[in-house]
What we know:
25% strand, 8 helices, 10-stranded mixed sheet, 239 residues, globular, 35% helix
Amino acid sequence: MLEIxxxxxxxxxxxxxxxxxxxxxxxxxxxxPSGAGKxxxxxxxxxFETLQSGRLLIDGRDITALPPAARPVSxxxxxxxxxxxxxxxxxxxxxxxxxxxxxVAQDDSxxxxxxxxxxxxxxxxxxxxxxxxxxxxxxxxxVLVRSTKVLLLDEPFAAxxxxxxxxxxxxxxxxxxxxxxxxxxxxxxxxxxxGAANNVAFVAEGAVEQSVSPAAFFANNTDGAIARYLxxxxxxxxx
Length: 239
């Protein structure tokens, strides 16, 4: 489980209060207006930003002071951070050995991860020779070779077409359950997230609200910030 207790973040004139719980095998969609702090929330969990006060716990262990590399967290960005001069297999292998010198067990784990995300036949290709969706699968394969508890995704499928976004989202759901991960997914596609997420965490007006079910979130017409957000979204997505 991922938990942020009484978290408070400040940077310049921006402040964010955070109280959040994400269970193992749970996919939480992080929604909210642009600039509200969705990516900041993920960066705090990953350790790229620091809480002014409060605690961040994973499975009851306080990791608030740990540097990013020491946290049991995997993060997938929109550009996926693939290295163009390496093959897809080598890019995945970086998840377990930065020098690409793998032992037998690590080799096997990379092969398994490539197979799980459908990249076995493309393993020796460079990123420039495959599609955007296939490059995104590299990031998810890296998650499979690492022993982490939390998966953070910062709009990783934004550049993909709707059909491929749905395919990738289904893969994230499967990996979340298989690996018992606490997964947070930032998205600007609320209609697509609606049927995929277990819960929704809403970021707006300087606060991260405790997650609620998608049904409760999208039915909300009384909370001012949520109602305004859904009103704006409805004109573009048909919610």
